[in-house]
């Protein structure tokens, strides 16, 4: 090994700081808030699973399983794979951790996922997902709950220009019939299809509809549409009625198929016009066949996943954490008092930062940049009198008071701002 070789990150894996990291955190925090509103419980599942967990559930012919998995031989477990998504691992845990007793369960999680893809904007080899699942419910209300959670999340993030595209893949019977019709149709044009789609024709013709290749897209437009059984139709009607009742707008897209094998009935994508080919920000559907594929008894389930990086690119850039109080000790003797003041304010729930060195003007500048609303200035006179100087940075007004007394005006400033935020939000909705 060359000891002087420059160390570098693994290709397609990002490290974040500053605004990018703040946007990322904002997406996760908002997800956690909305998750609680919808009563989805947190779950944690491992990053590594037996390769079979993904191969059996996602389908050997999918892009993810056939070319995108990070798999390796472990010392004692045979082939293991770094999760490319959450659904398979959560379903595995449902079976092997005895979670069946909690069914129907509404669960959510987030964390890193890994796919060996060509890195580009919005596409990485380690990316991060938000994930929500309802396992053990065949009720269309579960689909509605899940879609409402997704729509609410995107609204709470302030993401605009998003369309919910909705389709049904039908039940087993309607799906089989559709598959046959697609094979007949595409076989007649086989020579003109892309090589990938010629291959798909035998293995998974539905996926031709998902093709981004222009050679295929010419034929996709006129491809036969799914003919639903009465039962599948009734299910889809209930989902749509539920969405209407929840006030969630959608567009029907008869060619929307999900990339993975295990979907039945509802399939959906929230798509934005802002990220080019990487426009899908939240996607999912019903996967009634998956848990059976893992060896469990038939268990209906529905879920979605969203890419955190893609959401983070779409959120407002004004999500950086702000401090509330800046503490400025003037001189050596004031430092201990400043530390004491910081401990007091943080204990009282205020975000505070000590600016101990540099010219006072510079320090004020840094405090301002960090978002401080008030400055607490402590010098020799203040120490002698047992007070601090409290300065409202908006008005410039400065008053000497006891440390404990700064809580009231600081609370007032922040309360006023919170009210203004709420009023602005209400204004937007009118
Ligand atoms: P795409 O068509 O963009 O490859 P996909 O169908 O493979 O997406 P899913 O398996 O549905 O994606 O994953 C859910 C979400 O995870 C996607 O909508 C996207 O936001 C995100 N995602 C998927 N792959 C990546 C990646 N390599 N880098 C960043 N985000 C990703
Ligand atoms: Mg993909």
Structure characterization notes:
The protein has an eight-stranded mixed β-sheet. Strands 13-12-14-15-16 form a five-stranded mixed β-sheet, with helices on both faces. The protein is an alpha+beta fold and 430 residues long. Helix content is 40%, strand content 21%. The protein folds into two domains: 19-171 and 228-314, 2-Layer Sandwich (BirA Bifunctional Protein, domain 2); 325-429, Rossmann fold (3-Layer(aba) Sandwich), CATH 3.40.50.800. The chain has 15 helices and 16 strands. The structure holds adenosine-5'-triphosphate and magnesium ion. Residues 85, 115, 117, 122-124, 127, 129, 259, 278, 280-281, 283, 305-307, 309-310 line the site of adenosine-5'-triphosphate (ATP). It is an enzyme of class 6 (ligase). This is Histidine--tRNA ligase.
Question: Secondary-structure map with pairings?
Answer:
Blueprint: H1 19-37, E1 41-42, E2 48-50, H2 51-58, H3 63-68, E3 70-74, E4 78-82, H4 87-96, E5 105-114, E6 126-135, H5 140-156, E7 162-168, H6 172-187, H7 195-203, H8 214-220, H9 230-246, E8 251-252, E9 264-272, E10 280-286, H10 290-293, E11 301-307, H11 308-314, E12 325-329, H12 334-347, E13 352-354, H13 360-369, E14 374-378, H14 380-385, E15 388-392, E16 398-401, H15 407-429
Parallel strand pairs: 1-5, 7-8, 12-13, 12-14
Antiparallel strand pairs: 2-4, 3-4, 5-6, 6-11, 7-9, 9-10, 10-11, 14-15, 15-16
Helix pairs in contact: 1-5, 1-11, 5-9
This protein binds adenosine-5'-triphosphate and magnesium ion.
Enzyme class: ligase
GO molecular function: histidine-tRNA ligase activity
Subunit structure: Homodimer.
């Amino acid at each position: 090994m060359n000891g002087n070789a420059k160390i570098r990150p693994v290709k397609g894996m990002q490290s974040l700081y500053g605004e990018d990291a703040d946007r990322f955190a904002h997406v996760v925090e908002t997800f956690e808030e909305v998750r609680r509103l919808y009563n989805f419980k947190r779950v944690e599942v491992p990053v590594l699973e037996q390769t079979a967990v993904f191969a059996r559930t996602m389908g050997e012919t999918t892009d993810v399983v056939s070319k995108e998995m990070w798999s390796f031989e472990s010392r004692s477990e045979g082939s293991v794979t770094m999760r490319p998504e959450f659904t398979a691992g959560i379903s595995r845990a449902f079976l092997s951790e005895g979670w069946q007793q909690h069914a129907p369960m509404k669960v959510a999680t987030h964390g890193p996922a890994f796919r060996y893809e060509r890195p580009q904007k919005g596409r990485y080899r380690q990316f991060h997902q938000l994930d929500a699942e309802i396992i053990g419910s065949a009720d269309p209300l579960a689909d509605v709950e899940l879609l409402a959670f997704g729509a609410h999340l995107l609204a709470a993030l302030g993401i605009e220009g998003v369309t919910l595209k909705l389709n049904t893949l039908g039940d087993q019977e309607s799906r089989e019939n559709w598959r046959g019709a697609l094979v007949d149709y595409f076989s007649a044009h086989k020579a003109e299809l892309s090589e990938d789609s010629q291959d798909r024709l035998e293995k998974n013709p539905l996926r031709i509809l998902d093709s981004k290749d222009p050679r295929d897209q010419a034929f996709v437009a006129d491809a036969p549409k799914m003919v639903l059984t009465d039962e599948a139709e009734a299910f889809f009607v209930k989902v749509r009625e539920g969405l209407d009742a929840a006030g969630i707008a959608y567009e029907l897209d008869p060619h929307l198929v999900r990339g993975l094998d295990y979907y039945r009935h509802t399939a959906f994508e929230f798509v934005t016009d802002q990220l080019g080919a990487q426009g899908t920000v939240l996607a999912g559907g019903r996967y009634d066949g998956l848990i059976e594929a893992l060896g469990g008894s038939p268990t209906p389930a529905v879920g979605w996943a969203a890419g955190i990086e893609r959401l983070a690119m779409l959120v407002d850039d004004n999500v950086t954490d702000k401090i509330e109080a800046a503490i400025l000790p003037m001189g050596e003797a004031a430092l201990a008092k400043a530390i004491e003041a910081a401990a007091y304010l943080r204990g009282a729930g205020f975000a505070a930062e000590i600016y101990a060195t540099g010219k006072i003007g510079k320090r004020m500048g840094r405090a301002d940049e960090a978002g401080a609303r008030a400055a607490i200035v402590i010098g020799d006179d203040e120490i002698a009198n047992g007070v601090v100087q409290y300065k409202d940075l908006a008005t410039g007004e400065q008053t000497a008071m006891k440390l404990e007394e700064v809580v009231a005006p600081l609370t007032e400033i922040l309360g006023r701002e919170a009210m203004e935020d709420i009023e602005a939000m209400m204004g937007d909705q009118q």
